[in-house]
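Replying to the earlier thread about multi-chain prediction with a worked example.

Input:
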Amino acid sequence: MPRGIPVTVPDDGLTTRQRRNAPVLAVHTGPGKGKSTAAFGMALRAWNQGFDIGVFQFVKSAKWKVGEEAAFRALGRLHEETGEGGAVEWHKMGEGWSWSRKAGTEDDHAAAAAEGWNEIARRIEQERHRFYVLDEFTYPLKWGWVDVADVVRVLSERPGKQHVVVTGRDAPPELLEVADLVTEMTKIKHPMDAGRKGQRGIEW
Amino acid sequence: MPRGIPVTVPDDGLTTRQRRNAPVLAVHTGPGKGKSTAAFGMALRAWNQGFDIGVFQFVKSAKWKVGEEAAFRALGRLHEETGEGGAVEWHKMGEGWSWSRKAGTEDDHAAAAAEGWNEIARRIEQERHRFYVLDEFTYPLKWGWVDVADVVRVLSERPGKQHVVVTGRDAPPELLEVADLVTEMTKIKHPMDAGRKGQRGIEW
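Result:
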């Protein structure tokens, strides 16, 4: 467990308080489970601090992560009704981005991914959210649908105190370079190796 | 992302459905971040499925994970009020277990840890919860406060459909042996290395 004691104190001219409050860019990568789940676990903390949360899922499947989505939508409703915690917006590429009127974007994943990123970049510029989950965002980067250099620039130059968590395998080195927190999840053992299929309450 | 297709089909005499519904024992270990956060992310899915959730935290600090606790307590209240999701119980060793009347257990961590495990073992026998998070439970195992062989026996022989997630560094090999899902979190880069301290909404 972290004890709050930095290993080294950098010569960056910042006070401890400034450093403490520096917004975090985190990347969860590697072939193991838990990349997205850990991101949503972090979002629970953000919610409890009253942070405005924006989740952007760059996946096609509607089935997976329905549990996290339902729980966060419930937390978002609780915020609207009682003021507890923070606001929650949950956007999915799979069904066409909610802000988009384009029909048939689901037929063109590359265009949909680029549109999603452009919207996120706009929101970051406007400081629309305080905590962003860019779920499985490494894949459009890997497939060349979204420009890595543009992402690195927008994320590393983002204004204010916006925290960003990016999840997915094979995160590009340029992104890891500018990230503050990089965790690799490694699969040691998985039930599917033993012939099990995914099950409700565990995989979704 | 898992596609639901097992790599191998074992010769265990079970149907795919039986295997699919086999309760999961998961262990999140390794030196990186995300072990507990991923467990709480899994618990979000369990909550959404209406599973009764029991969280048992084997840590002393009250500060860390207060965000997850607040969010899950909110989800538990939502369940009580609207029937949505599942029930949530959250127990902490740090403040003395809520079910315990013993004064001063906080002075004897070994006894408190053993008491916590004994209660969990009773609940598992009674099938009290459907989804257990044994947070940072590897430490009392490591320090010899709780008997590893007893834990392995109770967990591997647990009745019904109870899912269990154990988190913490240095999980004992005997536990990994009986686990269905083992993920190791590896630290690649951490803001505290760069002289930052923990901050609200991120570390708690």
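Chain B touches chain A through 82 residues (CB under 8 Å).

Feel free to reuse this layout for your own posts.
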